[in-house]
Amino acid sequence: MTCRIEFTDESFIHNGISRSLLPQLVDSSSCFIEPFCHYLRHTFLREGLREGSVGAIAERLLHLCNFIERRIAQDAKLPVVGQLFLGASTVGQVLPRFCDEQLEAWLASQELAGNKPSTRRDRCDAVFNCFCWLEIKGLVTHSVRIPGLTDDEKFKPRLSCKLARTLPDKPRAKYGVVSALRPRDTRREQLPIPSDDDIEKLLTQVQRLFGRGTAERDTLLIRWYRLDGLRRIEWVNLKVKNIPSEREIDKLMFDGLTKSVDLDVTKGGRVQSVDVLPDLLQETREYIHGTRADIVKRFKKKYGEEYKEPPEIFLSNKTGKALNKRSVSNLLRKVFDAAGVDGHGHRLRATYLNSRTGAETEAEEIAVVQSGGLKHAINYHNVELRVTEAARSSSPEAVAPYIDAKRKQRSKVRGLDEYVTMDSQIAERKQALAVTTEQVRRAREELAEVQAQTAAARKEKSPRRHAPKRGRQAAQVS
User: Fold this and answer.
1) pTM for the structure as a whole
2) pLDDT at 169
3) Residues 314, 337: contact at Cβ < 8 Å?
4) In the chain, which segments carry CATH 1.10.443.10?
C-alpha cells in the first residue's frame, strides 16, 4: 500500500463555509502527513488557489512521499551506513530533517525513470516552496534560508538554495529562491501545429479505435477543439442547457449565422462564450438525443433513482458520469499515437489559433487596402487583440508566436471578411468527409461479416441427404 490523496467532503467547514475537494495527503498507515496537509490547506483556504492548482501541488508532494516510503522499506534491509533515512519509519518523521542528499536521490530516481526535465523541475519547485513555507511558519527549523527572514541567523540549512533568476518574461519565484539542485531549464522545441490533413488522420483513427457511440463523442471532441479552440476544462464542462434547440439551429443554418455558446467553466474562472457553427451544434444535439440518451437510459435502468443524470454533455460510456480532463488527455494521446501525428491534444487548440490568426490578418489587410493604404501596413496590434479575445486568453503574450509566424509569411489578399466563417466551414466539410468515408468502410466490413454468418447459418439448417445403408441395398438387390 502506498501514500494517497484524500479529499474533504461537504462536512468540512471553514469560516462557516463548506469546503469540499480539498486534497490531503495520507501515508500507507492511513495517517495524515501533517506538514504537507497544513501547506495544502493554506494554499487552498488562504491563498485562494483553485482545486486544480492545489491538486497539482498535492500530486507532486505525493510523489516525494511515495519515494520516501519505498526507501524506508529498502533501508530496513540495509546496514546503517547505507541507509538514506536513518531510523525513520514514517514520512512524517523524515520531513523535519529532509536534506539535500535525500532531495538529490529523489530527483535522480525520477531521471532514471525517464521523467522529463520540466516534470522534475515542477516537482522540485513544489517541494522546495512547501519547505520555505514550513520554515516561515516554524513547522520546520533550519531547513531553508529565506531572504529577508533568516539572513542574519547563523545556521547551515539542510536544503541549499540560490536566488531565482528574474527575467522579463518569467515571474519571480514565490519566495525569491529556488533549490540549488533544481534541474536546469531546457528550452523545449515547439511541437508542430497539426494541419488539416493531420486532423483528418485523427478523425479516421477515432472511427477505427472506438465503437460507434464513443467514436461519435470523440469526433465531437476534436471538432470543438479545432473549430472553436476549446480547452479540456471547457469541453468537459459543456452543459446540455447551453446547446440551442433544433428549431433554433435550423434557423441559424438558413440564415448562415453562428451561435454564441456560453462556457460556464473556463481557465480564468470567468463565464465566457464562443461562436459555434450551426453544423457543429447540430451534430452535438444529435449526440445528446442519441448516444448520450442511451447512456443515461442504461444507467437509470441499472441503478434506478441512485443515478443522477449529469448536466454535462459528454459522458463516459463506462460510468455514465461526465468525462474528466485526464481521461480526455489519455484518449487524445492514444489517437495521436495511432495516427502517427506529432504533438498532443492541446495542439488542436493551436490549430484553431493559427487559422484564426490567418483569418484576422487577412481581414485587417483588406480593411487597410480598402481605406487606400498598402497591404503591408497592417496593424498587427489590432490582430493580436482580436485573436487574444477569440482565444479567451488574459494575456496577448499567449498568441504572440502565432502573430509573429503570420507576420513572416504574409503574401497576398484573399477573400472577404466572411473568410473566418468560410475557412471553418471548409475545414469542417473536409473532416466530415473523412469521418464518413471511414464509417462507410466500417459498415461494409460489418455487412460482409453479417452476410458470412447468415450464409453459414443457412448451410447448417439445410436438410442433409443420407446415403442408404448397405444392408438395405443388398436386400433390395436379392
Assistant:
1) 0.54
2) 40
3) no
4) 211-326
